[in-house]
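Blinded run. Sample ID left blank on purpose so nobody reads anything into the name before looking at the predicted structure. Input follows.
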Amino acid sequence: MKTLDIYEELRSNSYPGRGIVIGRSADGKSAVTAYFIMGRSVNSRNRVFTETEDGIKTEAADPSKLSDPHLIIYSPVRKLGNKTIVTNGDQTDTIYELMDKQQTFEQSLRTREYEDDAPNYTPRISGIMHLGDGQYNYAMSILKSADGDPSSVERFTFTYSTPVAGIGHFIHTYMGDGSPLPSFEGEPKKVSIPNDIGEFTKGLWDSLNADNKVSLFVRFIDIATGEEKTEIVNKFEKV
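Blinded prediction complete.
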């Protein structure tokens, strides 16, 4: 598979929706993840990322403008021991709770399906990073309808053991803008990952569509020590 320029991928798509990147820094030292959200409606755009004890959550930038919290207020990132869970919805909590009961990432997601937002039936995209004893691996998942047919649920899981330095994988909810919005197709895209969290954060944020981007989370985790560096960018200020 060809390695793509993640910034060019974002610049060429005005509405990828929500997206997850997971990979390894170019120097091989860091496990890397990024998660972004976009929005077309006032309700979807009225959000910020805020840090929690074990990750981040979405909140209304202006609570007075929040018309429907369904599908837009959730915890995109949570930590469970030496695992970091990243998703585009409340399946973060499903994965956390069921893996805490010794179920696998894939087993946890068998209890869920695409979002109930007809006619889009937005895919649920998820990722998990596992670090321990100087080792690192990750997996990604997408739950989607069968080409927009809600009577059929398709579940795909992709696993990446001993990830290659400088390489990551990118999965997002939509192929582009449209009505209804066309769901992501195929396996996660292979993309390049730099060494520096500041460079990566700025590159991602600057490449997202200026009108539709809302918030961005980026984390680098030192594979040897577990030390974390996190950056959050919000387009809107919390009232």
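Unblinding after everyone has recorded impressions. Helices lie at 6-11, 42-45, 91-99, 105-109, 197-207.
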